[in-house]
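Bug #77: duplicate submission created two jobs. Keeping one. Sequence:
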Amino acid sequence: MSRLCSRSRTQALCRVSVKLLLDENLSDKIIVRIQDLFPGCTHVKNVGLARTDDAAIADWAKEHDFSVVSKDTDFYQRSVVFGSPPKFIWLRVGNCGTEPIVDLLRSEHALIRDFIASETERILVLERIS
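Kept job's structure:
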């Protein structure tokens, strides 16, 4: 993963690799809808991790330099206890369809890139405003 540039903040991000691994509680159909902003993102079932425990998903994400995206509080708790990597993006969106999740990820693209580039942040909470 690239680091923050030493230039001004307006030029802050130098090609940060934003690789998202979507957890099983999110639709794999989201991938196609965000691929232009998050190239290389994938879903747990696409990498053979369907119906796998959180520890195995976290280990895979760490090994392959992905950040985990989930609605699951278990990943939040895991991140608090074990830290990162992997980084964790917690979607607090309740029970909703794919469209609001796609809209949230797309609208927060810059924030997600900053979060992943940060050397100190390990959890990002994104909430849907109704």
